[in-house]
Structures are given as C-alpha cells and as structure tokens.
From TrEMBL, chain A:
<dbReference type="InterPro" id="IPR003593">
    <property type="entry name" value="AAA+_ATPase"/>
</dbReference>
<keyword id="KW-0813">Transport</keyword>
<feature type="region of interest" description="Disordered">
    <location>
        <begin position="1"/>
        <end position="26"/>
    </location>
</feature>
<dbReference type="InterPro" id="IPR051120">
    <property type="entry name" value="ABC_AA/LPS_Transport"/>
</dbReference>
<dbReference type="GO" id="GO:0016887">
    <property type="term" value="F:ATP hydrolysis activity"/>
</dbReference>
<dbReference type="InterPro" id="IPR032823">
    <property type="entry name" value="BCA_ABC_TP_C"/>
</dbReference>
<feature type="domain" description="ABC transporter">
    <location>
        <begin position="34"/>
        <end position="274"/>
    </location>
</feature>
<dbReference type="InterPro" id="IPR027417">
    <property type="entry name" value="P-loop_NTPase"/>
</dbReference>
<keyword id="KW-0067">ATP-binding</keyword>
From TrEMBL, chain B:
<feature type="transmembrane region" description="Helical">
    <location>
        <begin position="131"/>
        <end position="155"/>
    </location>
</feature>
<keyword id="KW-0812">Transmembrane</keyword>
<feature type="region of interest" description="Disordered">
    <location>
        <begin position="367"/>
        <end position="387"/>
    </location>
</feature>
<dbReference type="Pfam" id="PF02653">
    <property type="entry name" value="BPD_transp_2"/>
</dbReference>
<dbReference type="InterPro" id="IPR043428">
    <property type="entry name" value="LivM-like"/>
</dbReference>
<dbReference type="GO" id="GO:0005886">
    <property type="term" value="C:plasma membrane"/>
</dbReference>
<protein>
    <submittedName>
        <fullName>Amino acid/amide ABC transporter membrane protein 2, HAAT family</fullName>
    </submittedName>
</protein>
<feature type="transmembrane region" description="Helical">
    <location>
        <begin position="211"/>
        <end position="230"/>
    </location>
</feature>
<feature type="transmembrane region" description="Helical">
    <location>
        <begin position="334"/>
        <end position="358"/>
    </location>
</feature>
Length: 274, 387
C-alpha cells in the first residue's frame, strides 16, 4: 500500500522535463518511451538476453519477431520488473530507471502487459475483470469502501464495446472462448490506460477471423497508445503494418519494415537455415 | 456512516441476511428454552447443553474466519487454532485475575499456579488483565498482531501454497511447545482453569451461561456480516483475483502481499474472538488448543460446510461437532476414522461442501431460464470466435 514514488507527466506526447535535481537526460533517450541499452541477463549460464539495445519512441507501435528462445519474453519480464537484468540500462519515459522498481510500481507507472497464455480472472464476470483493471486506486482498504459509479461503468461499457464482449458482460470469464479471453485481456490492458502496452503473442491459437479482428483491435489501440507486440504469425505482423524488430539469441538481429527484415540474409538464415 | 454503508454491503445477499437472523434466533431461542421452559417439558434445553451449543457456535466462528482466508484468498491455514487459542488465553487471563482471593492459595494477585511455582511477582505481561476491557482489547490485538507479523514476512517473501500451510502449522506447533512450558507464565500443561465469575457474575449460573450463549450468537452473526461485507466489496473481488492469479494482479499494479495481509489479520482477529467466547463456556484453556490437529479439524469443518461460501463453514462446524459429540458417546474409538473418511468423501464428491450441494439443488431451478438467454446470446457473440 505504498505510494508510487515516481510521478509521471500525464500527457504522453510531450517530452518529460527532467527535474532539475537529476542529471540532465542524455539527448539520445530524451524523446523515447522505452530505452534499453546493453541489457544482458543470463539464467544458469544461458544468455537469454545478450547486449540487447532497443528503443521505442512515444506513440510508436512495434512488432517483435524471433524464433523460440530469442529472448522475447525475458525482455518483457525485464521491462515489467519481473526479472532484473545483470547489466545494462532500462529507462521508461526517458528518465525512469525501471531496474529500480518492482512489478506493481511499474504497472502503476503505466506499463501494461498481456501474457502469452491468456490470464483473466476466470471466477469473475467479464465486467468485473475490467473493473479490477480500471486505472486508479490500487490499495486494498479503500477498495472496501468502493462504490460503483457512473464514470467507471461508462468506461467499462466503452471497453466492452471495443473488445466486442458487450453481450457477455455478466458471464464468468471462464466461459469465454480462447479468442475472447485474449480480447478480454486486451480490454483489461485498455482499462489500465497504460502509456505502453506489451502484448505477448496475442493471436496464438486464434482462428483466421479472430486474428484479423485482433489486428484491427491493436491498430485502433495504437492510435493513442504505444504498443509492443511479440508475435510469430507473419501474416498478422503484416496486417499490423508497423516497424519490425527481429530478435535472435538475446539481441537484435535486424530492424525495419517487415519487407526489409524478411529480406535480411541473417534473418533468413535464422528462420530457414535449420 | 461510511462503516454502516460498508456493512450494508454485506446484506446484499439474502442468504447472509437469513443466516444472520437464524443465528440470532438460535441465540435467543436456546436460552429461552433453557430458562423459561420447565425441565419437564420436551422442549426444555438441559443446562449442560447450553455451553455445548455455545461451543459449536464458537467453532462456527473459527470456521468462518478460516473460510475468509482459505475460501476467498487461497491461504490454506493449518494454524488457525493458534489465533483461536491466543484469544482464549487472553480471556482466560482475565478470568484468572477475577478469581482473586478465592483461589486455593488465596493470593489476591497471583493465580494459583504462580503461587505453586513460588513466583513472588506477577509477570509484566499479566499486567492490565484485571481489566475486562483491556482483556477484550488483547483478545483482538494479540492474534491480530501475530497474524500481522507472520503475514508481513510470509506474504512479502512470496511464500504460497503448501509451503505457507506448513509454516502456519509450524507456527501453532511452536506455540504449543512454548505454552507447555511452566516458565512461560501461562499455567504450563494445565493451562488456565477454575474460573469463578465474569464481570462479577457467577459463571456457573444459568443466566450467565445463557448470556454467554447469546453473545456468541451475536458475535457470530456480526462476524458473518463483516465477512460478507468484505467479500462482497471490490476488495473481495481483488482478493479472489489474488487467489486465482496472484502474479497477474501484480501486473495490474496491485500488491498481493498487502491485499492478503488485511484478510489474514481480520481472520485472525475473528478466530481470537471465537476463542475468547469459547473459554468461559468450556471453563478451561490449555496448550492442547494449539495442537495442530485442532487447526486441521477447522479445515475439515470448512471443507465439509463448503469452502468459499461463508455460511457453509459455520454449518459445517456445527454439524461435524454435533456428530463428534454423538460419535464419541457411542463409538469413541472410531471418531477419527469417521472424521478422516468425511474429509476424503467431501474432497472427492463434494468439492463445494454441503453448501455447494444445497446451492446446486436450488440453483438448477433458478438458473434454468438464464441458460436459455445465454444460448440465444452465443451465436451473436461467437460469430467471430468460432472456437
């Protein structure tokens, strides 16, 4: 029940002015939302992340591709505070050092995460899943006295409409189909209203129709949020139509448009060479 | 006012309201049948049954407390008997001080066992217990504080599941060993007993017995209301979210350790109150109350009654203990087998306990039209889903 120690400017578009007591923010990361430099992390000698550098600008949407074990999930773990890097810099909004905070603090700063396997609260209704995710108070005791209010209900209705689950609002999340759970989780991300959304394999196990729908949903979200999507499905990445970063063995192999990346001989080597 | 609104939230469910009325009704009925109905009448409740029923209600309160953490927060505590016993000891210490010069040794300050041990002075932790209000405060504060310290460290180090259960069991076992020691200053092996009166009224009198019974029913109903208000609030939703997917709640910005800590402490305080009401009715508190088996029995009551239903565990505690009273009279050597068998059967065939069974029997009829709605809903919502 601690207060968030770091205050973040509310407007994501404007560059944050570093407070005078801090050292001036290096110009390289001044306008970045997410800035990873020389990040390494090994597990029992296996380098899951190796000298990884990655920059995401404000308002940008990026797709990350890469074979299994390329370090995609570990990278998300590091950004969200689940895992600490062995070395390297991880900055959010240019000057917030993410390696110094834990998961709840980072989540409250405005980094939302959707997991590879959909994790919604199955024993609660779709609407309650969103209510629990709504931006705002995160302490327990005030929640005892929480009263349902109009702005919250309206926000939940809006999100239900976006994720197309209006008609299932009072059903338990457990009864949703796999694809609908994925959407509900994206809806929970929206409810948090984060500055950055990390979305891990949103279309794994989805039908083609669901995949298309999800691409539409993410493009809509990207209009006013920064998004990082990890995905294997190339058709889906093409649908997103954004800059692509290809990871391999814990570092960036290639970066650019999907056509550029997929024409890169190194990428072809990694994906087709074995 | 804000508190009243909070408690009113607990009444949203008619089941809770009805259960509270039933409990309060029993709280009035049993004393009336004992005191006002002549012993010749078949409706008369015998004197010795009043504290026995009171004991069942105390157990019901302990099961309710356990359900708050086990049913709603996923913490399987195998040490709730410790909080129950600590509340009991706090009340027992006051009752000891009230004996005064009427003890065997007639010492105005020192309880008998201290005189027997040749102690000259009252230990510092017995100060204040001559005041009833102080003792009542300690009934809640001591279990609450232990739970706070225990939970603070256990939840912060992210100990969960079976490991947490084992630590809770170790906690109550450690207290058992400690309270057995004479030099702890709690009467050692024999514990605290020979109570004479409470607030100046004779504990053996019918009126006091009845008053204690009513108080137990009152506090049970009140605790049920508090538990229902807690679990029915948004906090209750967070609590269940932590139970089902603790890691997920962290990425939503919640601190599961703090969320759990609150319910844990409230539960310990409830168990302490149950213990405090238990002691004057059974007339003794000894270290045996810390025995791990006691805590495990609470788990059985809760499971039989229906984990996660609040009302169910209260019924479970009463049912199982009534069965125990009957069984230990008829076939004493087989009681533990019966208890073990009951637990296994419940786990295998009644995962939601008796309450789940009742809910199913009633729910099927009530839910039937709803099911149709869902069916008409499905094609629309699933049009793009397909799975």
């Amino acid at each position: 029940m601690t207060e968030i120690p770091v205050k973040i400017p509310a407007e994501p578009k404007s560059a944050p002015k570093a407070p005078p007591k801090h050292a001036p923010v290096p110009s390289a990361r001044k306008d970045t939302l997410l800035y990873l430099d020389g990040v390494s992390r090994s597990f029992d000698g296996f380098k899951a992340i190796n000298e990884l550098s990655f920059v995401l600008m404000k308002g940008e949407m990026r797709a990350i591709i890469g074979p299994n074990g390329a370090g995609k999930t570990t990278m998300m773990d590091i950004i969200t505070g689940k895992t600490r890097p062995d070395k390297g810099d991880v900055f959010f909004m240019g000057d917030v050092d993410l390696t110094k905070h834990d998961e709840p603090t980072i989540a409250q700063m405005g980094i939302g995460r959707k997991f590879q396997k959909p994790t919604v609260f199955e024993t609660q209704t779709v609407a309650d899943n969103l209510l629990l995710s709504l931006k705002g108070e995160r302490r327990g005791i005030p929640a005892l006295f929480y009263r349902s209010n109009k702005p919250d209900r309206q926000r939940i209705d809006e999100i239900l409409e976006v994720i197309r689950l209006e008609r299932r609002r009072n059903e338990l999340a457990a009864f949703l189909s796999h694809g609908q759970k994925q959407w509900l989780e994206i809806g929970m991300l929206l409810a948090q209203d984060p500055k950055l959304l990390l979305v891990d394999e949103p279309v794994a196990g989805m039908t083609d129709a669901e995949t298309e729908e999800t691409a539409r949903l993410l493009r809509d979200i990207a209009v006013d949020h920064s998004v990082v999507v990890v995905e294997h499905d190339m058709g889906f990445v093409r649908d997103l139509g954004v800059k692509v970063t290809c990871l391999h063995e814990g570092h960036v192999l290639s970066e650019g448009s999907l056509d550029h990346v997929s024409a890169d001989p190194q990428v072809i080597e990694v994906y087709l060479g074995r | 006012m804000i508190l009243g609104r909070f408690l009113a939230g607990g009444l949203k469910s008619p089941v809770i309201l009805i259960s509270m009325l039933v409990i309060l009704g029993i709280g009035v009925l049993v004393p009336v049948l004992n005191l006002a109905v002549p012993p010749s009448s078949p409706f008369h409740v015998a004197d010795h049954l009043v504290p026995l029923y009171g004991k069942y209600l105390c157990y019901g309160m302990a099961a309710l407390a356990l359900d708050l953490v086990w049913g709603y927060c996923g913490i399987l505590s195998l040490g709730h008997g410790a909080f129950f016993a600590l509340g009991g000891y706090a009340m027992g210490m006051h009752l000891m001080r009230e004996i005064g010069t009427r003890g065997v040794y007639g010492d105005p300050i020192l309880p008998d066992f201290m005189v027997f041990l040749n102690w000259k002075e009252l230990p510092w932790f017995w100060y204040g217990f001559d005041s009833f209000l102080f003792a009542c405060l300690m009934v809640m504060l001591v279990p609450g504080l232990l739970a706070f310290i225990f939970g603070w460290f256990a939840f912060r180090s992210r100990v969960t599941g079976v490991y947490l259960s084992i630590i809770t069991q170790a906690m109550t076992y450690a207290l058992l060993l400690a309270f057995f020691r004479n030099d702890m200053g709690f009467g050692g092996n024999n514990g605290l007993t020979d109570f004479k009166d409470v607030l100046g009224y004779d504990l053996q009198s019918g009126q006091v017995r009845s008053a204690l019974f009513f108080l137990t029913a009152f506090f049970l109903a009140l605790n049920l209301l508090i538990a229902a208000a807690i679990t029915g609030s948004k906090y209750g939703k967070i609590l269940r979210a932590v139970r089902d997917a603790e890691a997920r709640t962290r990425f939503l910005g919640y601190r599961p350790e703090n969320i759990k800590l609150f319910a844990w402490v409230v539960s310990a305080v409830m168990a302490g109150i149950a213990g405090a009401l238990y002691v004057p009715q059974v007339g003794i508190i000894n270290p045996g109350e810390f025995a791990p088996a006691n805590s495990i029995e609470m788990v059985v009551w809760t499971a039989v009654g229906g984990r996660g239903t609040l009302v169910g565990p209260i019924g479970g505690a009463v049912l199982v203990n009534a069965a125990k009273s009957w069984f230990t009279g008829v076939l004493p050597e087989y009681w533990l087998f019966a208890l073990g068998g009951l637990f296994i059967l419940t786990t295998l065939f009644l995962p939601e306990g008796v309450a789940g069974l009742i809910r199913k029997a009633f729910g099927r009829r009530a839910k039937a039209p709803k099911g149709k709605d869902e069916e008409t809903d499905q094609p629309v919502a699933d049009a793009t889903a397909g799975e």
